[in-house]
Amino acid sequence: MNFGYTNQARRSSKTKLPSSGKYVSYRTKGNPRPNVGLLDPSSTTVTPLRFPDNSPIRSLHHLIEEWDKVHETLIPGTPVENVSDVVLLAPLRGRDVLCVGKNYREHAEEFHNSGFDKSDNKAQPDFPVIFTKRASSIIGNGAHIYPHPKVTQSVDYEGELAIIIGKGGIGITKEDAWTHVWGATIVNDVTARERQRDHKQFYIGKSLDTFCPMGPWAVQASYLDFKTMHLTTRLNGNIVQSQNTSELIFDIPTIIETVSMGATLQPGDVIATGTPAGVCLSTGVYLKDGDEVEVEITGIGKLKNRVVDRGAAPECLPVRLG
């Protein structure tokens, strides 16, 4: 895309963009094409964004990739919509999500003592436990989690802070890691526990369709204080997880150094950093039809999804990024 815009084009917008730092992937009702927009500070309206050459932004991946060139000269489009009138999509779709397991001490203990942990012979790992969730498992805020009753009887939630890579790279050091972070979102790492146990590797138990709620939006890093973020998960309105996200066993720079060790990270990659204690396996009572899971993180927002078993798996449609 050619960003050889003129100063006149830069001044052509008379509408000032809201400065919330919250970027939304969404569809207007009746239109299948996705948009990328910016929320107002109250998170009640969304303004569609356009590149400086006036072309629409259809993918947050593309915006993040071009971020350093264009973020100060983005053009507001029309119409401005109420958030309640649009369909929120997961902010970043179409790529597998990188994930870290057993990354809070109390959760590492509860998982290890549950009988489901076949990944190690001790609770706290010596190195970050890395796995992926299939891209086809990603859904947005408000979308339904399908419990796959023919596949699993132990569906569990895991509220997590997910960081978003801005500048890609390979062999990123801990010292440089924060310069590669574009922002953050929320992930609910929904898990089929017996599949996670039986298959040893986590991929199958983590990757069933609809098992990666993400959102409700992506927040740019300059609007976040990663030291003061608190994660709260509610099941049917009751608090089940509560912990500061800075209490990770392996911190964010260590995670980035680990996952980029010989493997290239790309702009827009999502890394879920792990879940605190308080998941279903600690009680043996798992998610069922009608349950609602809400994950809230300070400075980001609330990701809310309901478990819905309609007797048949949802149709999987190919993801359109543009």
Automatic annotation (TrEMBL):
<protein>
    <recommendedName>
        <fullName>Fumarylacetoacetase-like C-terminal domain-containing protein</fullName>
    </recommendedName>
</protein>
<feature type="region of interest" description="Disordered">
    <location>
        <begin position="1"/>
        <end position="43"/>
    </location>
</feature>
<feature type="compositionally biased region" description="Polar residues">
    <location>
        <begin position="1"/>
        <end position="18"/>
    </location>
</feature>
<dbReference type="InterPro" id="IPR036663">
    <property type="entry name" value="Fumarylacetoacetase_C_sf"/>
</dbReference>
<comment type="similarity">
    <text>Belongs to the FAH family.</text>
</comment>
<feature type="domain" description="Fumarylacetoacetase-like C-terminal">
    <location>
        <begin position="97"/>
        <end position="308"/>
    </location>
</feature>
<keyword id="KW-0479">Metal-binding</keyword>
<dbReference type="InterPro" id="IPR011234">
    <property type="entry name" value="Fumarylacetoacetase-like_C"/>
</dbReference>
<dbReference type="Pfam" id="PF01557">
    <property type="entry name" value="FAA_hydrolase"/>
</dbReference>
